[in-house]
Specification:
This protein is an alpha+beta fold and about 450 residues long. It is built from 14 helices and 19 strands. The termini are far apart. About 0% of the residues have low confidence.
Amino acid sequence: MKSKVLDFIRKKRLLKKGDSVVLGVSGGADSICMLKILSDAQKRRDISIYVLHINHQIRGAEADEDAKFVKKACTKFKVPHRVVSVDVPSIAKEQGLSLEEAGRMVRYEEFSKYAYEVGANKIAVAHNSNDNAETVLMNLARGTGIKGLGGIAPKRKMEDSKGNTIEVIRPILCLTRKEIEEYLNENDIKYREDSTNESTDYTRNKIRLEVMPLLENINDNAMQNITNASEELADTSKYIDKDVEDAYEEYVSEEDGKLFLSDKAFSLDPVVFSGVIRKMIENTAGKLKDITRIHVGDVVNLKEKQVGKKIDLPYAVVAEREYEGISIFCEENESSAKSEDKEIVISFEDDDFDKENIEELEYTKWLDYDKIDDVVVRTRKKGDYIIVDDKGGRKKLKDYFIDEKIPRRERDDVLLVADGSHILWVVGHRISEAVKVTPETKKVVKLEYNS
């Protein structure tokens, strides 16, 4: 069995000469098996290993005994180690997380800290083949896409406590739980049993204790078949990811923290299009947990909806149909232009100013001063209008924004030069026909916008 693990490590390129690795060891069968195999292999492989044990303060005296057991095992295997205690229940309550979520967050924070201190470039965790099958079923039940059906990856990258890239590896992912326990029993290696593993209060435990036995009654090889399928789906996902990356680079742009997908992408293959949407959500939210196929599908369907249609997603993420595509942004972080941060400079032209050859500039405009009463700089209000022709034809400002395809989320931020409800200048766009300079104009006022 040891050779099976070492072959897996070599095939997946999990370790190389000179690597330094922090092992997460709970004291259970999986982590003790990983500790034993890697401690035996470290000289031959020319690697350095360290152990970190975290007491989550969930199981009282039982957890204290786990810590003592890990210290004793590390001393036996002559491996440097550290034991830390973190109040996970309090953290879960403060941050509104489940114990599972809070525990996972704490573990990787502590792993990255210790790795930085000892100069380790990798973190090893003891997920096994059963864990992978359970993860696939859990993701499937929650409504995952193809990536979630790929299960647990043998390795992935993360950042340590100082922002440096570090790799998380899973050296015994190739082993079943049965193989691990048989190996430890045959070699008379002790390990700890976690009493919470028998509680169906945890989602994963429900799958392990209730769902998997039912599937194995149907087919003895159910767990292995799920694992094999997940590997094929993981490879398929990697292949699709290449096309998604190319499409994302071509069709997605970013401005002020908001991502915009051009409607030119609507002709993409549906699988690639969905992948681009998923990536946009991930880059906006910072994670994909709790983002299901339904969420992605709702955003994909926006391309058939009318302009202005919005979809609310987890983590305060919003997707909106716009005139030329779909935008995705985080509503909490949505920035708004404040008029006090901007400046309109007003000056007057000389009498010899050439009124018949005024330049068409985006952020500089010339107006007939005598047709203006009281000028203010503000954002839109109900009842605003702009005069759009030389006959005095009015258009509601809202209708003007729609006609000009100004996204709804940007309309409250557009700066206006107004005389009452009469909009003299939609900054960055047009001026009112009523105040245009003509050959009859006597006094010309110049407005310049400086951001």
